[in-house]
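ugh finaly. both done.
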Amino acid sequence: MNSRAADPLISIDGVILDEDGKMAHISVPKKLEKQFRPSLTQGSVYMFTNLIAVDTKQKAYIYHHQDYMLQFQHTSMVNRLQTRGGTIPRFAFNLCPFDQLPSKNIRSKPLIEQTQQLLLWSEHGESFDGDNIIQQSKNGIVVAIFAGLTVGNFSGQIEASSSSATQVFIDSDLQEIVKFRESYQWEPPALQRHLPQILQKSPIEAAGQIYKIEQLTALQPSSFQRGATYSCIAKITAIVPSIKWYYKACLSCKIGYNSISETPRCDCATSQPMPMFKLPLALTDDTGSIEAIAFSSIAEDLVERNAYQASQNMKIHATDHAASLQTAVGKIRLFHIGMSTDMSSNFSIKYVIRKSFPIDKPPSTSLLSHNEV
C-alpha cells in the first residue's frame, strides 16, 4: 500500500495461502519494513510465528475474506521452508459474481461471469493490450481474472475499478481459467457477435455526466448513500480556515484517533500517531461554490506535500495554515464528490472529495465491456 508522500510506503500487505488452500490477509507496518521486507518473497513457503490478529470489520480497501488480518510485530518470526508446501496452490481466488457487487462496495474482490464494465486506471489501462485481446477473441474466447479490484458507487452506479493491488491474469494456466474455458460452449461464429469492447478514455470521458456545483448541491443526501459519487469540474478558490487541516491516525492501520482524548481507536498492539490530511477546500464553478474535504493522498496531490512534512513547522489551529498549502488554490480539477451521510457527525462540511484528476493532461484509462472476460 502506497501514498504520494515523500516516503510513499504505508505498509506491506499480502494474501497468504496454507496447505488447505485457505487464505488470510497479512500486513507488515511501515515501522517494521526493514526488519521483514528482505525475508518475504512472493511464491515462497514460510512458517510464521507470533503474529497478532487485528479486527478489520470497519476497514476499507483491504482484503475482506475474514473479519480479521494477521499483523506482524517486533517479536514475529519468519522461517522459510524448503521441504514443505508442494501442495499449496500458487494462486487462489474468492470469485464474486457481478450481481453481488453491491455487497462488496468499497472492498476489493475478484469478479467472474456476466457482462459488465471494468475500469482500469493509469498504468493498468495503459499497459492493457486491447488490440491483441480483440484479435484473440476472433478465434476463441479470452478468459481473464482481474484480482484486487475496488468496488464503489459512482454516479449512482456500482462499478469495479483497478487499484494499486490489482493483478490481471489473461489466458494463463490457472485452474479457474481452465475450468471456465472448458465450461464455455460458444464457437467462433457466435464469438464474432460477442467481441469485447475496449475503449481508451480520459478521466473526463470516463466520468460520464459532469455535474455543475448548483446541481450537486440540489441532490438529496439519499443520492449519496452507499458511497455514491458525482463528477464536477471546479476551481479550488480557498482553503477553508474554520477547522483543523489534519487529524491524528494510527501509523499501522490509518484509523483516526479519538478527537477528544487523542487516544487510538484501533486494536493495533502498538499504535503510533501520525498526521493525516483533512483539508477543507472551497470549490467554485460558474454556478456556485461548495466546501468539501480532501483526505490523505487526495490532499497530498493537491498541496504537493504530505501531512507529516507540512505539520513539522505548523500548529493545528485553523489560523496557522502554512503558505505552502496554498499551492492547492487556483487548481482546476475534475473531482469525484461524495458526501458523509453520518447524521450523528458534528462535522460542518459534509461533501468529500473521493478522487481528483488534472484536466490539462489527464491519465489514461481503459473501459472494458466484456462478454468473455
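ok and the 2nd:
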Amino acid sequence: MKLRRNNSEQREKRSRPASVDAVIDSLVSYVKGQLLRPLSGAGRWLVFGLAGGILVGGGVALGLLGVLRLLQSEFSGIAAEDSRLSWL
C-alpha cells in the first residue's frame, strides 16, 4: 500500500537528493516488513492468552472454593456457635 503524500511533502521530496529518498523508502519498507507485519499476527496470540488467563483464573477460583468446602465438611469444629471462624 503506497502512502499518498501531500503537496508540502512532494516539494520536500523534489528538493532532496535521490539517495535520501532511497534511504527513506528503504526505511519505510523495513519498518513495514519487520514491525507491522509481525505485530498484525500478534493479535491472535493476545486473544488466546487472554482466554487462557480467564480460564485458568476461573479454575483457580473453583479449586479454592472446593478446598474451602472440603475444610468445612471435614472439620466440624468450624461452626457458628463455637468458633470465630464461622464466616468460612
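summary for the 2nd one i guess: The radius of gyration is 31 Å.
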